[in-house]
Design a protein that fits this description.
about 40% helix; alpha/beta; binds the ligand CC1=C(O)/C(=C\N=C(/Cc2ccc(O)c(F)c2)C(=O)O)C(COP(=O)(O)O)=CN1; 14 strands; five-stranded mixed beta sheet
């Protein structure tokens, strides 16, 4: 059947400027070789994150004009409640200003000093908020997740035996079990419905609350439809409702799979939990019918949740990310396989094998991408991983990656070609690339504001 083009036409554009290589070399030096310190105007193709960077639809923008900014009982809150019910099946939710705010509330309710919190893989804000409550994040993803060359359909899966054994040994010290869909730290890899069901059964066996980190739930559902037997003929909402039916609730950063620039929520089945969450919501986010957002933001989010589960959108979204991955593979640039739902992850460890982990190969490749093409990726490796609180040494992750994160409905296939070309040019001269050292290393979430120098 005919190939499909983008399921939209473009009504407004946001001009971007190219810069010269000399300008970029000066800018990145001034930024302490940390792309988080760059100004957006100095970035040509910004692949730092898919979080909050989506393009909204005309339907969502129209919703921005319908903000009911009542302090309590905003109609946008009720529209959002209906959208959450439609797509996730949950009756109760607490709006928050973004995903980490939902994590903050949930973990304050559940996590106490010394607790373990199992997850397939914690992303860094989830890890940071568990640690902020003196808990210990534990990653129990399947071993294949750490083999960048292994092409496995559901690489985000929790290792069920590991989880069972962990709970057998530590059950009294585990207040809650999380599952991140898709698994960002592992390469935007999906979790199968069967695995979600199995995690749910184990949590019931040990009587543990089970929450999904739902940031990229729609992309996860699309992979289930494509790859899992029995789901090819199901609609995306049928699949998403089944996913959430196995969990007690979810944290959600709407900045990803709700197609908005700000916002999030904590959703749950249990009204009593909502009552407890509301107390913290009032303290940290705002009255429970706005939760740190304007009414207009909630309206855009309600409409975004209904749009993100549309199949032709997901087909376009997943195919565009995969296109970049295929282009890079054609050019022999090492990437993590299979290509993720929201990003292509360059395998900096294989790309720059001569740079030791404590000289940050991912950081070196991120800097090179900016200098070569004005492209901003993000290091997902030793820098992001931070230091082990017990040993004080770097908390070395298995993989040294650079995430090329594709915003939703923003860039064209031509932009993908430019990114692949820049990566190829760097790959051809990779022996000239050296490592980096800290000149300033902050205490927590160091990757945001750290400064580096070439060793
Ligand atoms: C699976 C998961 C996330 O991916 C996530 C966020 N992700 C970001 C933004 C980001 C966050 C921290 C960084 O060091 C970073 F460099 C990028 C991202 O790009 O991937 C959050 C938190 O959701 P919030 O951002 O709405 O609070 C919770 N869970």
């Amino acid at each position: 059947e005919m190939m499909a083009a983008e399921p939209f036409r473009i009504k407004m554009v946001e001009p971007i400027k190219t810069t010269t290589k000399e300008e970029r070399q000066r800018k990145i030096k001034e930024a302490g070789y940390n792309v988080f310190n760059l100004e957006s105007k100095d970035v040509y193709i910004d692949l730092l994150t898919d979080s909050g960077t989506s393009a909204m639809s005309d339907n969502q923008w129209a919703g921005m004009m319908l903000g009911d900014e009542a302090y309590a009982g905003s109609k946008n809150f009720y529209n959002l409640k209906d959208a959450i019910k439609e797509v996730m099946g949950y009756d109760y939710f607490l709006p928050t200003h973004q995903g980490r705010a939902a994590e903050n509330v949930l973990f304050q309710l559940y996590v106490e000093e010394g607790n373990y919190v199992p997850n397939n893989m914690h992303f860094d804000t989830t890890k940071a908020h568990v640690q902020d409550k003196r808990g210990r994040p534990v990653n129990l993803v399947i071993d294949e997740a750490y083999d960048a060359k292994k092409n496995v359909p559901f690489k985000g899966n929790m290792d069920i035996d590991k989880l069972d054994n962990f709970l057998k040994e530590h059950s009294d010290n585990v207040p809650i079990v999380l599952l991140t869909v898709t698994c960002n730290s592992g390469g935007g890899q999906p979790v199968s419905m069967e695995n979600i069901k199995e995690v749910s059964e184990i949590c019931k066996k040990y009587n543990k609350p089970f929450y999904l980190d739902a940031c990229r739930f729609a992309e996860n559902a699309y992979f289930i439809k494509l790859r899992e037997p029995g789901y090819a003929d199901k609609s995306i909402p049928e699949i998403t409702r089944e996913m959430f039916s196995y969990a007690d609730g979810c944290t959600m950063s709407s900045k990803k799979d709700a197609l908005v620039n700000i916002g999030g929520f904590l959703a749950m089945e249990d009204e009593k939990l909502l009552d407890k969450a509301k107390v913290l919501g009032v303290l940290y986010e705002g009255f429970p019918t706005y939760g740190g957002m304007a009414g207009r933001d909630m309206e855009a989010m309600a409409r975004g949740l209904l749009e993100v589960v549309e199949e032709e959108y997901l087909q376009y979204r997943i195919n565009q990310v995969n296109y970049l991955g295929e282009k890079l593979k054609e050019k022999k640039v090492p990437i993590l396989e299979p290509v993720g739902g929201h990003a292509v992850y360059l395998d900096a460890g294989r790309f720059l094998p001569n740079i030791p982990k404590d000289q940050f190969p991912g950081q070196a490749l991120t800097v090179a991408l900016y200098e070569e093409g004005g492209i901003r990726g993000v290091e997902i490796g030793t820098v992001l991983s931070g230091r082990d609180p017990e040993t004080g040494d770097h908390d070395y992750p298995e993989l040294e990656l650079v995430r090329l994160t594709i915003p939703r409905r923003v860039y064209t296939y031509r932009h993908m070609d430019v990114v692949a070309e820049a990566a190829k040019i760097i790959h051809d001269k990779r022996d000239e690339i050296g490592g980096y050292k800290f000149t300033y290393e902050p205490e927590i979430l160091r990757h945001f504001t750290a400064r580096f120098a070439p060793v």
